[in-house]
Amino acid sequence: MVVRDGFRRARRITGAILLILSLVTAIWHPGDRSAFWQGVEGRLLDARFLWRGPLTPPEGVAIIAFDDAAMSQLETFPPSRSALAKAVSFAAEAGAEAIALDFLLIDPREGDVDLAEALAGTSAVIGVAEAPADAGLQDLEGGDFSVVIAPELNKPLPALGPTETLRGSALIGHVTLRHDTDGAARRLGAAQYLATEDGNAWYPSLAIAAMKASDDELDLRLRSSQTSGRLSVGKTLIALDGRGAIPLNFYGPGGTIPTYSFASLGDADLTGKIIFVGATATGFGDRHATSYDATFPGVELHATLAANAIEQRFLRRDAVTWVWDVALALMASTLGFFAARLDRPWLGAFATAAAFCVLALVLQAAFVAGWWLDGVTALLSLLLGASAGIGLRLVQHRRRAANLALYQSPLIVERLADATDPRFEAAARPAVVLFVDVANFTAYSEKLGPEGTADFLRLFHGIVEQSVEPLRGIITHFAGDGAMVVFGLPEPGSDDTIRALRFIEALYVAVGSSSDWPGLGLRVGGHAGPVKTSIIGGKRHKQLAVSGDVVNTASRLQDFAKSQSAAIALSSALLMSNPDARDRASKMGLCPAGLHTLRGRNEPIEIWIGPSPVNVEL
Question: Three-class SS of residue 73?
Fold first, then answer.
């Protein structure tokens, strides 16, 4: 019960520490922290996109692309302002609701008047971006936000807006793209804070400005903070992430959103749609890595955001998802902990893999529902839990092994613990077997009672143990006031007999020097020869067994010593197994007793007997 309570206490302490670590990890939110973890989180998000597969985009968005075919036809790069004017006019005549130009038209050029006239007759948006810090301030109109509740940013960069001829002919939306740390584009800034001659102002992204251009009644309201925020586009509420950006819910690789080449607009279906005009020609440079495509057109990023707004199909990664990340982290660490700490390693590995699959399904289900949960947080929490479970399992197994090792000799424990298949060789091998017995124990224990008898047996067993271990002998078992000791296991040695005799001497010296020993005598019987060592028992309960005629004979020799009123009875076979054994036996006071037929045996053996060795040099 004490051991089990100790295990339970260790589990509780480990579990509490694990939950605290998981909570700290979730609050830290590694997927939004260092460049490395942001990159890992980006890859995990890409995997969720690929697992979900492409979607059909809404019919309300299309792209007019100045692709390779168009640039070959125009024979000019980049496209001229007159070509842009033709694209705008065509889209307007085709019934487009709004037209957004993904171009920075910053320098005066031929055709600006034509483009201005084309824009003036439509609901159009043109781009603005950040200029270098030393650039001059431009006179731009505001960003068409009805309400802006956001912190004033220090030293915003100047606006890099359209040329003066084009100003006022269309709404303005920012076209700034900021990549994740791994170089991929997965989100667009909801608004950009820029400095102008009239002061600092917030400008919506190109896609949001296009939504405003398509319906002038829409109110754009920006509420943002350092950690979260939201953007209202009419009745559509868009949650912003911690960077003030809108995560993009991609529909597929480049070209998934209907795209028409400027070179062949005759069949383009643009009626009632928001049209984005951009360059996709080779060498233009407006290509970006995304979850589906390594060369995704920049203009399609803006079109994707507009499509998300039309369908209200957003990926939410805000403070609310952060709370869910915390809950998922605690769940993942708990699953990993209980899975990995299962007793059988293969079962623990299987359960941990199952926990990983469950976690992946939860992340994917949340993603499909529009929640971008932090996969890095969840996986790290799962690994924390699994590591804690494995560590606790190893500690428990070590503790159990240490407890069980007390019931076998350390030499045998080491042999069995290191073996893949714990067993001994099938062949018999030479060994020295000794039986030790306490004289007059039965009568003495009758006076002691159960508790006193138990105390005496602990004393006796301790004396045997302290005498045998320095000499590398093995106690195969205790049986009440008796003990069986073997020399030659797990491997036989040339000095087994000498060590056995030294053990007998040490045993009597230890009894004589013990202040707690009640004065009872000891009897020792010993024999040498081949023994069979094996592991016996059922599937779950096993024990070491040493068997053979040598064991039986050694036991009978102990009885023979009692019948001869001797303390020690050893076979001649034991003393003859080492050249120095007979001389040492003589010094111990042993002498030949002749040939005797022991009880249960047919053949007589030569026996040496003697009293308790006194004043022996060890």
Answer: helix
β-strands 287-288, 296-297 pairing: antiparallel
CA–CA distance from 191 to each of 176, 222, 513 (Å)?
9, 8, 92
What is the maximum alpha-carbon separation in the chain? 134
Residue 303 host element (H or E): helix 298-311
DSSP string, 315-358: -B-SHHHHHHHHHHHHHHHHHHHHHHTSSSHHHHHHHHHHHHHH
146 in Cβ contact with 220 (< 8 Å): yes
**Pairing state between β 591-596 and 568-571:** unpaired
Residue 485, token pair as written in the block: 């000791």
The number of CA neighbours under 13 Å toward the Cβ of 432 is 32
CB 173 within 8 A of CB 208: yes
In which element (H, E) is residue 430 found? strand 429-438
Q: What are the CA-CA distances from residue 435 to residues 509, 518, 583 (Å)?
A: 17, 21, 22
- pTM value? 0.73
SS3 182: coil
Give the DSSP H/E element, type plus range, for residue 570: strand 568-571
Distance in angstroms (rounded) separating the CA atoms of residues 605 and 611:
20
- 445-493 pLDDT, tens digit per residue, is 888 888 888 888 999 999 998 999 889 888 888 888 889 999 988 788 8
Per residue in 294-324, pLDDT (tens digit) is 999 999 999 999 999 999 999 999 989 999 9
What pLDDT, in 10s, does the model give residues 493-536?
Answer: 888 999 999 999 999 999 888 888 888 889 999 999 999 887 76
Please give the C-alpha separations between residue 120 and each of 112, 166, 197, 299, in angstroms, as whole numbers: 12, 9, 23, 22
Q: Before 57, cis peptide (omega within 30)? A: no
Task: Calculate the CA dihedral of residues 119, 126, 251, 284 and round it to 10 degrees.
Answer: 110
- C-alpha angle 151-154-157 in degrees, rounded to nearest 5: 110
Distance of CA 304 to the CA centre of its chain: 35
Name the DSSP class of 158: B
- Alpha-carbon distances of 144 from 130, 140, 209, 449, rounded to whole Å: 18, 12, 8, 99
> Per-residue confidence at 1, pLDDT binned at 50, 70, 90?
very low
